Amino acid sequence: MAKQSAYFIVRDAHDKHDVKALKNGLDELKGVLSVSVNADQSRIAVDYDSTGVQQGQIARKICKLGYDIMEDHNQAHIM
Questions:
Q1: Contact (Cβ atoms closer than 8 angstroms) between residue 43 and residue 8
Q2: What is the pLDDT of residues 20-64, one digit of tens each?
Q3: In sequence order, what DSSP letters do the residues of the chain get, joined into one string?
Q4: Is the dihedral of CA 48, 6, 22, 14 positive or negative?
Q5: What end-to-end distance do the CA atoms of the chain give, in Å?
Q6: Do 62 and 42 form a contact (C-beta atoms < 8 A)?
Q7: Where are the domains of the chain?
Q8: Phi, psi of 16, rounded to the nearest 5 degrees
């Protein structure tokens, strides 16, 4: 398993509904291990197995859920 983390800052993710929609939507992607959403700062952290999903797929899913990505970056973990 190649574990990586992707971090996104999105526009208009400010309440419980947004947190739930983002978590549920991203959890549908094969390879997503965990999703953490900070609604106060509109930040999303996604831990994932890069053999099952790629950062670009995660970003596209966020956009399909109706959120604009303002900034993103990726971090690989050595295990």
A1: yes
A2: 999 999 999 999 999 999 988 989 999 999 999 999 999 999 999
A3: --EEEEEEEEES--SHHHHHHHHHHHHTSTTEEEEEEETTTTEEEEEEETTT--HHHHHHHHHHTT-EEEEEEEEE---
A4: positive
A5: 9
A6: no
A7: 8-29+38-43
A8: -60, -35
